[in-house]
Amino acid sequence: MRGLLRSLTLVACLALAVPAGAAAPVVVSSKLSSESAMIGHMIRLLLEAHGIETTDRMTLGGTPIMRRAIIAGLVDLYVEYTGNAAFFYNVATDPAWKDLDAGYALGARLDYQAHRIVWLAPARASNAWALAVRSELAAREHLATLTDFGRWVASGGAVVLACSAEFANSGVLRSLEHTYGFTLRPEQLIVLAGGDTSATIRAAAERTSGTNTAMVYGTDGAVAFSRLTVLEDDRHDQPVYAPVPIIRERVLREHPEIAAIVKPLMESFDRDTLQALNARVQIDGEPPVSVAADYLRARGLLTAPAPDGTRRAP
Predict the structure, then answer these.
(1) Dihedrals φ, ψ of 196, to 5°?
(2) Which domains does the chain have, with CATH numbers?
(3) How far is residue 157's CA from residue 149's CA, in Å, rounded to a whole number?
(4) Could you give the CA distance from residue 216 to residue 196 in angstroms, rounded to a whole number?
(5) Distance of alpha carbon 298 from alpha carbon 314, whole angstroms
(6) Most exposed among 23, 27, 37, 213, judged by the fewest C-beta atoms under 10 Å?
(7) Which residues on adjacent β-strands are paired with residue 61?
């Protein structure tokens, strides 16, 4: 916590050091996760390519730190997740959060009204809790959705699920069981300490104690690498957590072009794309900024570096 507070203090000091009348760089930041940092770097590189000066404040802190930073004006732009607004404003029971478009509209309205924070275009993907089964099992039993999974389990399918205690006890699993018409017995659960999905994914990949199903996040990089198939939440049981860049209104007024710059990037993402990008960071160990630059060039959103080291948008 002390380190995070020192980071916030540094950002504040840098903001105060900008000469009067000068256009301040856009402070682009991110949460601690590799996905947040990777998308944050993509946005920062795009802004620079369009001639907008930025300050890199990636991996500044967790959600509470990031919220305080942007509300206080210490950070100008970072990637949030749509479903988190349900907790920011204590409206978690609103069914809007289970639909990407409705949740986006509600979160954008609440954030703008309360703090003049503008939500830009979201990704069409969700990093919500999900279930993933071994891919050969999915193919053999024709499992593509949680409806398929529920039908298979209810008919006697031999499932062993690796999950966290939070997933098993906070109501998430019970909600899925109720929505999709299945029940898992205690002996069908391997409850692992902590909430790290890398452990649950590894258990399914290695068939630990017969595990063939894992609690995952929708865009986990290790999913495809571990030959697991994420099951579609086709009845919208879980809230949607779509990555969405959020920006202070004052900064967007100074640089209104930012919305159009960011839009094609965010619209290029789907679940499979983010899984593959996350795998490069989480599994292959590539730096998020390198993955970010490669992706932008591959999509034609960023040209190769010029001789002076600068980059320009096409």
Answers:
(1) -80, 115
(2) 2-126+242-298 (3.40.190.10), 129-230 (3.40.190.120)
(3) 9
(4) 9
(5) 12
(6) 23
(7) none
The CA distance from 248 to 217, in Å, is 28
Pairing of strands 228-230, 129-134: antiparallel
1, HSE (Cβ side, Cα atoms, 13 Å) = 1
Residues in CB range of 215: below 8 A, 6 or more apart: 129, 130, 131, 161, 162, 163, 164, 167, 197, 200
Provide Rg for the chain, Cα atoms. 21
Full DSSP string of the chain: -HHHHHHHHHHHHHHHTSPTTS-PPEEEE--SSHHHHHHHHHHHHHHHHTT--EEEETT---HHHHHHHHHTTS--EEEEEGGGHHHHTT-TT-GGGGSHHHHHHHHHHHHHHHH-EEE-PPPS----EEEEEEHHHHHHHT--BHHHHHHHHHTT----EEEEHHHHHSSHHHHHHHHHT----GGGEEEESSS-HHHHHHHHHTTGGG--EEEEETT-THHHHTTEEEPB-TT--SPP--EEEEEEHHHHHH-TTHHHHHHHHHHT--HHHHHHHHHHHHTT---HHHHHHHHHHHTTSSPPPPTTS-----
Sequence-ordered list of residues with C-beta below 8 angstroms from that of 236, at least 6 positions apart, any chain: 98, 99
pLDDT tens digits, residue range 125-178?
Answer: 999 999 999 999 999 999 999 999 999 999 999 999 999 998 998 889 999 999
Going from the C-alpha of 51 to that of each of 37, 74, 78, 143, 267, the distances in angstroms are 21, 22, 19, 48, 22
Residues 311/302, Cβ–Cβ less than 8 Å: yes
Return phi, psi of residue 264, to 5°: -65, -30
